[in-house]
Amino acid sequence: xxxxxxxxxxxxxxxxxxxxxxxxxxxxxxxxxxxxxxxxxxxxxxxxxxxxxxxxxxxxxxxxxxxxxxxxxxxxxxxxxxxxxxxxxxxxxxxxxxxxxxxxxxxxxxxxxxxxxxxxxxxxxxxxxxxxxxxxxxxxxxxxxxxxxxxxxxxxxxxxxxxxxxxxxxxxxxxxxxxxxxxxxxxxxxxxxxxxxxxxxxxxxxxxxxxxx
Length: 213
Known about the structure:
With 213 residues, the protein is mainly α. The chain has helices spanning 30-52, 63-67, 75-96, 108-118, 121-134, 180-183, 187-194, 200-211; strands at residues 139-146, 149-156, 170-173.
């Protein structure tokens, strides 16, 4: 099992991947996975731990508690928690919602919700990809559930729905480090190919959990 996680005595740790670095080929290449997980995500974790280590009252809080209550955090830690905590939350979700699906599609209540909100699965993908292409600079595209209703929201940098007290069902990373080695500046090609690595079983489980929360 591929992992570059470190043993740490800090509140937050890099989650181990549940698959090998080459498991998402040809959509995502092994070197991108290795750098994205072991370098970029690890840096968010390390910097988040640095941000909270000077504040004892923050070290016992969950990531969700930190991100959804930024206004009450010490000013000295707030920016670093927002950026690095958001990066940690976003990437932790990202790894767990991908696997090769060979053209698979959502089913059950998730498929019904997509059709209800967007007209069809193809229309949903089109709108999601458009949001990803239009996101200026680095950022993410998320799918968020409000009860049974789904919405698409693009957010800059490592901003996250957690900042508004909401957990995303799933989302795609449109920072260049997520795709540049393979796709160069062709973000639309990456967005189009990415649907072949969405783990619809994992996404459906998240949807059911979040809409009932």
